[in-house]
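Project standup — Tuesday

K.O.: blocked on the structure for the chain from last sprint. Re-posting the sequence here as requested.
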Amino acid sequence: MFGVWPSISKLVVSEIHPLALSFYVQLLPALVLLPMIRGQRVSRRDWRLIVATAIAGTVSGPIVYFYGLERTTASNSVLLSNSEALFTMVFAYVLLRERTDRRGYLALAGIAAGAFFVTTQLRFGDVQFLEYLVGNVLLVTAAGCWGLSNTGSTVLLRRIPIVPLLALQLVVGSSILFPVVVVSGVPLAVPIDILPLLLFLSLTAVIVFSILFFYAFRTIGAMRTGAVLPSSAVSGVLLALYLFPDQTLNEWQILGGALMVGSLVALYVFGEPRGRAAAGETLKPAASDGPDSP
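H.V.: unblocked you, prediction finished:
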C-alpha cells in the first residue's frame, strides 16, 4: 500500500492542487472512520499529543510531500519515501529508547545503505539529480514529519485503540487544513477521471496502510516497523516503471533493493529487540480493550 502511494499521487497531483489534495486525502478517510470515535475517551495529555501528531503527520507531511512531488519524478518519490523508515528508526532509538543487539544494528545499517543506493544512485554530479533537488529535499522533509508523527503515535497506541486513534488524527488534521484551504483560495474541483484514483488513495494508501502500520507498531515496535518499510520500494518502483515507462531502473537501484531485502531478512533472523520495546511497554495499550485487533 505504501509503495503505490507515490506513483498514484503523481498522477493525481497533476490534476489537483497539492494543497487541495492534502485536504482531500485526510477528509475522505476521516469521514469514513468518524463513527469509530463515538464513545472514545481521551485524556487531556493524549489530546495534546494527538494534535501534535496530526500537525506533523496529517497536515505538514502531506502538504510538503505533494509540493515536492510536483517537482520530481515518480521513481524519485518512491525511492525517497524510504527516508521515512530511517527517520522512524532514528526517532524510535532517540525518543522511545528502542534497542536491538549488535547484529540487529548491522542489519539496520544495511537497510540504510540500501536505501541510500536506491535513492541517490550515486549520481551526485548528474544534471538531472540537481534539477530535481528541490523536490527531493521537500520529499525528505515530509518523511521527517511522518517519522516524527509515527513516534508520537507509538506512544498513543499504548492507551488508544488503533482505528479510533487514526480517526482522531485524521479529523484533527482535516479541521486544521480546512481553513488553510479556504483562505488560500485554491480550486477544490476534482476531475471525474481522477476521482477513482483519489478514492483509491484515501481508502487504501491512507486507511488500510495506516491501520496495518499502526498494528505493526503495537506488535513489533517502531524501530522494526521502520525497518520493514523500505521493502515497499520494490513494489513502488515496479509500479512507477509501469505507469511512467520513460523512467528506467539502473544497477544501483537493483543493488540497493537487494541489500534492503537481505538486511531485512537478517534483522528478523539475528536481531533481538532490547530495552523498553523488548519488555512490551511500547507494544500494547496500558489497559485491555478486548481482543488484540484493530
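K.O.: great, moving the ticket to review. Residues 5-274 form one domain. The chain has a mean pLDDT of 80.
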